[in-house]
Amino acid sequence: MVETVIARMPEKLGATHFNLLTTYPNADAPKVPRDADVSVVGLQPLRLALVEFPIALLARVARMIRLPLGWVRSRGCRAMLDSDVVVDVAGISFADGRGVPIVVYNALMTGVPLLLGVPTVKAAQALGPFKSPVNSVLSRLVLPRVTTICARGARTREHLDSLKLSNVVDVADLAFSLEESAKLPAEVALSISSLTNGFIVVMPSAVVKGIFENGGDNYVEAVAQLIRQLRATTNKGIVIAPHSYRVGHGEGRMNDGPVCREVAAQLIGDAGVVLVDADLAAGELRRLIGLGEVLVTSRFHAMISGLCTETPTVVVGWSHKYREVLDDFGLMDFGMDSQVLKTPDVVVDKVVSSLASADVIRESIREALPAVQQRSFRNFDVIAEAATS
Fold first, then answer.
1. What pLDDT score does 182 carry?
2. What is the pTM of this model?
3. Of 235, 239, 280, 281, which is closest to residue 260 (Cα–Cα)?
4. N or C: which end of the chain has fewer CB within 10 A?
5. What pLDDT digit, counting tens, does each position of 217-260 carry?
6. Average pLDDT of the chain?
7. Of 347, 364, 378, 330, which is closest to residue 169 (Cα–Cα)?
8. How many structural domains are present in the chain?
9. Domain with 332 in it: what CATH number?
10. Domain limits at 135?
11. Does 257 share its domain with 142?
12. d(CA 205, CA 183)
């Protein structure tokens, strides 16, 4: 989503400087496009809570008594104050079931620019439901004050309507506006070239692993078993690849690399299984997915790349955010909860069905995609309007 905003906003605003506020400044800095005007600013959760938020509270008091804010020098708050608009690109926020720490983080991240008085847009994301006590209070406190909330699907819109908000517009995900890379890195292209009978791309998720294992099950073993059955049933090669990757970091919500390596280790004797253990750019990941015959994924933006490349896509996810997008393409039946991994035959049947009806699925995607992409472009109109108002 960040790559897409950096690539597309200059088309709306002309030459644009971006302050990229990130939890992983050292890892993200090398990924910034060389021709983009971007300053990478570290904004780790502890810094957000203990430094930037208190300063933003003081700034709010100063604004109320009409004092200038030149004294604000903390890097996060200063970067926001120096900006015309703050764009929140959380994939999902203020959602029940994610735990109190995550909801509090969502509130702090969105609340800081609001306290500073900077126009703030929540770009395409899933939100809600808002029924748990902490989430209910914080969402009602923060969301009405956002300049514009971009609802990513019908179910998100329903959740937001329950709050009776007047600042919501309907969009599609930013990633539908991302361009696919022309080629893969040479080493990746070489590693998949041995799969001469076509291949299925499997993209596990560290987030889904945590959810699946809450009940005592083993996610790595379940995914490995799914792959064994896919190999036996389809005779297709399997490419295991992380859609979210952090070099030098252990397993975490934004790092699927360790999970993918663990799954691949259980299949080490099968030459038809290839692990792509590389930090690919978003456009390169889209290219890899497009080369596959079917995508099986638990990552939201991998699903979007599957749809953008007209690749039959089977989703093993965890929230409404997947199905509300699949619904736009008439493919809701291909979205399942992660608990389905306990019965891998169900997933295998969906993949076999996808292979058998690939032409029909591609046509369904092809017909729906232009309208969805048009709604995706609406995000940039909203951001530009907030920046220039």
1. 87
2. 0.82
3. 239
4. C
5. 999 999 999 999 999 999 999 999 999 998 877 777 789 999 99
6. 94
7. 378
8. 2
9. 3.40.50.2000
10. 2-177+373-388
11. no
12. 24
